[in-house]
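ARCHIVE CARD
SHELF: 3
SLOT: left
DATA:
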Amino acid sequence: MLDLACLHGHAECVETLLLQGDDILVHDSTTRRTPLHSAAMNGHTECLRLLMETAEDSNIVDCTDVYERTPLMMAVANGHVDTVLYLIANGAIVNAKDSQGRTALHRGAANGHEECVDALLHNGADVTVRDHRGRMPAYLAATCGQVCILSNLLAMGPSSSKSEDHLGYTPLHIACYNGQDNCVETILEQEKITELSGNPFSPLHCAV
């Protein structure tokens, strides 16, 4: 019941259940999602506050589900900047990785949540961290056509040509492949593209 109350943002019900001694770290049977994940994914910051104030261990803020996703990752993925800021203020690990090696910044970059990305960057998010396929957040921004975020990430981190994944593809390759014209233009405006190593296909091949 606590998980459902948090999922739907019923703060009074959450408070009542906590007073009755409900387990904050109860997991659902499918993804092992906790009430903190449920509150974070829907931006119910008041429910999160009640959970955090009741918890005996502040490290609960970084509890994980079966995919090693934290509440912060869920909040960023759904664009809830107030919740993101609350979690960071309460000690959430900004650069935590899930089972695929992705951080909250990877999610914000892919989904286009600029305010969340800004909050992460202002609180120590690493723009160079790679997932298990070698992809930095800028790569996902280019994949999904998130132009403003891509521009900011490239300005803060390595150039597109130095952001190759494990197959040798760069953000420019993937932007060309997916037809993300604005991202291609952004990369070319910010960088002087020289010979790309690591992959037999050029961005031109990918565009064709």
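SLOT: right
DATA:
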Amino acid sequence: MASNASEERRPLIGLTTYLEPSRHGDWDVVSALLPAAYVDGVRAAGGRPVLLPPSGPQGPGWSDAEVSDLDALVLTGGGDVDPARYGQAPLASTGSPNPARDHHEISLVRSALRLGLPVLGICRGAQLLNVALGGTLHQHLPDVLDGRRHQASTATFARTQVRTEPGSRVRELLGAEVAVHCYHHQAVDRLAEDLRVAARAADGTVEAVEAADPAAGFLLGVQWHPEQDAADRRLFAAVVAAAREASAAVSR
């Protein structure tokens, strides 16, 4: 007996990427890049990953019509969000801005929210989610904390113990405490009105945010890197499950 086609369909999960110079054989060109761990995480959780590159700085953002082809959006990690986006001048410790990426990812967030798509932000993605909704960032955590415990050394993930907030979606998914892979020198400062804190590190750093209104659907940002833990796909499974439910609701 043939199986039901709708049961076999894997949700289409958009993953943000960035444009960087790269070498491929004889070619030295600008490419749309993303670490494969993100793709692997989505596929292992039952989703179909699709890469979403930005265009030039002056290019149009993503439209609702384009984003509506997706079932969910994952905002991936990367460089610092331009402080001008939240009304601040850059510090010497803040990375060089990438206006094209900021512009396109903020347009993606806003379209996804208008369309009711599930959204998962990872590291930079959580920060961008807060900025897109009107919040601000600590530009350099060592300026407000003692030490660099969230970014111990170059290109090395720190293991951080995170405590989730009672009643949060993150606690429902991961339990009261979870050890995570962190690599960040920035974090949420002033929280956007439509978000609430869902987890913190022991030093008080905001490690996860989610929709303040539970009825708003799946809207979650984590400061850590779940794609680095192949043994724990719970966050990827959660966004894929939310995408499947949202797609089924639209079909009904």
